[in-house]
Amino acid sequence: MKFIHRLGYYLGGFSIGIIILMFFLNGKDASCDYGPNARTVKNISLKKFEYSENVMKTISLNSIDTSSVRQFIKYGSVDFSESDTKSKDCKTYKIENTYKEREVVLQVKNCSLIATILDLKIQN
What are the tens digits of pLDDT across the range 112-123? Predict the structure, then answer.
């Protein structure tokens, strides 16, 4: 069989497979979170949030709502070098993001059922 025929069969089968996958995965909430940052942020985002007193003061002073804090975490970048990932019970992560061209740094304690926002700093 010539190379052009094999290539045609391959591309035909590949195209049909892609169409079938698009049909089955259409409307599903499928994601490919394989990197360490994506897995950590997704794990934290799926949990119930609690806020410390200090964070609640910062939120009220800067006119930020709690849904914005969720967005900071969801689209933030985890700094693993300054995070405590060795703990068994609750790991503490430093998450960085930007808000209105200002740097936002969150300290999040990630336990099995609850994620607690320990600190929120908005730098000028």
Answer: 899 999 999 988
Q: Output the six-digit token pair for 35.
A: 């990197």
Among candidate residues 74, 77, 111, the one with its CA nearest the CA of residue 94: 77
Q: What share of the chain is helix, strand, coil (3-state, %, to 5)?
A: 40, 30, 25
Amino acid at 11: L
Sheet holding 77-84, edge to edge: 48-51, 114-123, 102-110, 91-99, 77-84
The reply to whether the predicted model has a pTM over 0.85 is no
Taking CA atoms, 77 is separated from 22, 39, 94, 98, in Å, by 30, 11, 8, 10
Which one of 12-16, 22-26, 60-64 scores highest in mean pLDDT?
12-16
